[in-house]
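Late entry, pyridoxal-5'-phosphate complex.
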Amino acid sequence: MRKSYAGSKIIQKADMLRKHNLYPFFRAIEASDGSTVTISGKKQVMIGSNNYLGLTHHPEVQEAAIKAIEKYGTGCTGSRFLNGNLNLHEELEEKLARYLGHEQAIVFSTGMQTNLGTLSAICGPKDCMLFDSENHASILDASRLAFGTTFKFKHNDMDSLEEQLEANCSRFQRTIIVADGVFSMTGDILNLPKVIELAKKYDAFVYVDDAHGLGVMGNKGRGTMDHFGLADQVDFNMGTFSKSFASIGGVMSGTKENMDYVKHSARSFMFSASMPPSAVATVSACLDVIEKDDTIHENLWENVRFMREGFKEIGFYTYESKTPIIPIFIGDDLKAMQVTNYLMEQGVFCTPVITPAVPKGEALIRTSYMASHKKEDLQYVLDVFKRAKKEMEIPSIMH
Ligand SMILES: Cc1ncc(COP(=O)(O)O)c(C=O)c1O
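Prediction complete; structure with ligand written out below:
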């Protein structure tokens, strides 16, 4: 008899949460203006998205997407290799290369595909990758797909990275250090200067997944490598358009030579349909808007400062994050669900992060901020969190 999936641990857990009315996933959004959403007819302040620049609802961005649909239709119906390559894709790649300060950029259909395709292409059977233990799931999956060998180093721990380099890299043809630029759950920033110093010492390549840094960090959001003034030292820089760039898609950038290799060997690029015209035009319009409007980044960082100080004043432990991602330490998984539920009932949309995404006992609520959040909405969020802390006994320190 076939074994059913219903008895699996993951389904048991989901059922248990549903039974107690604590299931926090797949909430259907009925309407959105970016920084607020409507769910079951009720308005909620959105502090659970990655729309850092708030550009999903910018009039110029929306207009560009509509015009692209009118000119090119709704989809490309094929891979860039074959029938799915528009002049729009090539123009965007040139624009992105200039913006990032790299020789060449390639756009993929999602960020996940960018990591899967590039890493599996560049880490062959004689190569190895050294992998930060808190890297995103798409990098973990890419390491499973690649024929090379993977070694983990402790999160953002440069001694641990050097130990792994020392122990392993001489046995392989190529070594690639792979890490997020801004880590997605806790918002901490990669120690890129030290990574590059070690990469030079051990003759390794540097691969940065800057999904949460692109659009946010550095001058006009050029990313983590720009934040440190090290764009020319990063060999492979990955970004996604599903966060600051208000759409869907991904970008890989680096030297012409390396990008030409990726373009002709990344299977998720070659064997999957290209980004739709409206998405390409959206990203291009976001770049134009960022270029001419400094207030977007000014508002973002002002909102981040306001929330960081507000949470500190209330007494939450926020992991010293220096990015728009501000995690709130809760501890227990079930409590994180209960707090999320409480916040949701009070009109605040955010997401719990529980095991296995974080170690047991380190559950958190991931909150994140946008340039377009209104101060009164953010103050409302702080007031709700203050009540939650008192009523639900949320700890002030990590233990
Ligand atoms: C660090 C990181 N890398 C890659 C991805 C995948 O990006 P996308 O959503 O564009 O597939 C994400 C998305 O959550 C991410 O957070």
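The radius of gyration is 21 Å. Will revisit in the morning.
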